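From the shared-data thread, chain only:
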Amino acid sequence: MHYLSNHDITWINATLLGKTVPFNYEALEAAMAAQYSYGDSTLVREQAGNFLGSFVKSPPFAAANRRTAFVALLTFLTANGYELTASHLDTSALVKDAFDNKVDSASVIDSCVSTSQGVAPIASLRSIVTSILNSHTPAISVLTPGDE
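Structure, as tokens:
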């Protein structure tokens, strides 16, 4: 299993904004810890739902929580060999809906993530994030209005 650290998540946020912003450390720690599962920590889909749910429940950053959650979620899934079955635009719209309390986080994962695990890529988390940022700009743009 591959997990994002607090540093990884704050780096994603700063990269999206082009600057660092204040954050609530306890909320950030809760989001990071939500990636883990007790006992057998191999339930990637459930852990991804928990991860997103933590961002929704208690957004850690002063700005760009939706975008940070979207990029971090895709990074966590990609690093652990999962792919989206929905388009990135549809997935970003569902992430926005989760933040607007229109859908729950588990529904986002159920609607967007493949049920079978593929081979985990041999890449660093940073290179996965960079790839996501470069290739999913329109999806990230969907999350930008109201995320400042």
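Helices lie at 6-17, 25-33, 44-57, 65-79, 88-99, 105-112, 125-135, 137-143.
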